[in-house]
């Protein structure tokens, strides 16, 4: 198949490109390089079936040319992180909502046979049920989660009204090699690995007993492959590890000293995906244990040698907007 991957130079997108090429597909990787890095796909450049194009999904007219003759569209491009979404909501809307509309329309106009959307488990907010099924209420707590949920609504509506064969994958706490090493305060692995490299205690939010459904990136890439190969449409699937792990357990595996910082509003005490639907309908299951995944991260820890090193003080300053808008002052 001829596959177009938006967000190809990003963390997850680069792994998706790698897997689809390995499976023999032709891949067009599209990215504006605003947050992704061309280095993430540099190793693919020698593959004659790979083509990288720098383009911005906010520019509807300019991206259409790249969809001509494409069979499958995998839409991974988007803005992430909580604090920037609170501070820059219009940018998040422009990319995650309007950008998704532009990609959808390009796919529809050029007759794509499959459309796979990258949704976020943050849409559940603070769930009432664990493991959380796809039928749980959508209750976004901040603009990032809201805009990703709005993008998903567009995709499901296009599947219904325009018969565009589409699926949505709600990803839970993805981690692995090539995850972001710079930018805003965000994903726990990057924060902890940079701190560990500098011999600093890792900054644990709250008491560390909160759990996350850490899902390894290679398993996530295989979920995209299973979704693209299926004949289903109009369905939403959780993509999770099949378990959940405390932050304290992560720190035990990283073998670090620790310090504790205040718990933040709008964050769940647990994320834990009910993955029965994707296991049964797409015959997908995770393969990487948490221990294996953490070892893989330690194996590439030097990638974070020049990453920002967050401290309790700098985190408090970086998350001040979060506290102010989501419930209490920092």
From TrEMBL:
Coiled coil: none annotated. InterPro entries: Epimerase_deHydtase, NAD(P)-bd_dom_sf. Residues 3-240 form the NAD-dependent epimerase/dehydratase domain. Pathway: Bacterial outer membrane biogenesis; LPS O-antigen biosynthesis. CDD domains: UDP_AE_SDR_e. It comes from the Bacteria. It holds the Pfam family Epimerase. Belongs to the NAD(P)-dependent epimerase/dehydratase family. This is UDP-glucose 4-epimerase. It comes from Paraburkholderia steynii. The lineage of its organism: Bacteria, Pseudomonadati, Pseudomonadota, Betaproteobacteria, Burkholderiales.
């Amino acid at each position: 198949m001829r596959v177009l991957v938006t967000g190809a130079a990003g963390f997850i997108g680069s792994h998706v490109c790698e897997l689809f090429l390995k499976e023999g597909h032709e891949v067009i990787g599209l990215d504006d390089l605003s947050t992704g890095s061309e280095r993430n796909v540099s190793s693919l450049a020698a593959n004659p079936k790979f083509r990288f194009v720098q383009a911005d999904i906010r520019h509807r007219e300019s991206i259409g040319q790249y969809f001509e003759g494409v069979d499958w569209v995998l839409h991974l491009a988007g803005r992430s992180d909580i604090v920037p979404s609170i501070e820059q909501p219009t940018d998040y809307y422009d990319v995650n909502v309007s950008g998704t509309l532009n990609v959808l329309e390009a796919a529809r106009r050029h007759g794509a046979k499959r459309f796979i959307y990258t949704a976020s488990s943050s849409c559940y907010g603070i769930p009432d049920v664990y493991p959380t099924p796809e039928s749980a209420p959508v209750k976004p707590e901040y603009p990032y989660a809201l805009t990703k949920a709005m993008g998903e609504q567009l995709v499901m509506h296009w599947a219904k009204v325009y018969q565009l064969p589409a699926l949505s994958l709600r990803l839970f706490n993805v981690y692995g090699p090539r995850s972001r090493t710079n930018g805003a305060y965000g994903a726990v692995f990057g924060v902890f690995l940079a701190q560990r490299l500098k011999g600093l205690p890792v900054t644990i939010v709250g008491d560390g007993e909160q759990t996350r459904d850490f899902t390894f990136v290679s398993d996530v890439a295989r979920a995209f492959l299973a979704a693209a190969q299926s004949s289903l449409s109009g369905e939403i699937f959780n993509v999770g590890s099949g378990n959940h792990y405390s932050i304290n357990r992560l720190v035990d595996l990283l073998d670090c000293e620790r310090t504790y910082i205040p718990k933040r509003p709008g964050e769940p005490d647990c994320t834990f995906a009910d993955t029965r639907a994707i296991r049964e309908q797409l015959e997908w299951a995770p393969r990487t244990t948490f221990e294996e995944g953490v070892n893989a991260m330690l194996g590439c820890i030097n990638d974070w040698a020049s990453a920002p090193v967050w401290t309790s003080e700098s985190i408090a300053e970086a998350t001040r907007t979060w506290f102010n808008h989501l419930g209490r002052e920092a």
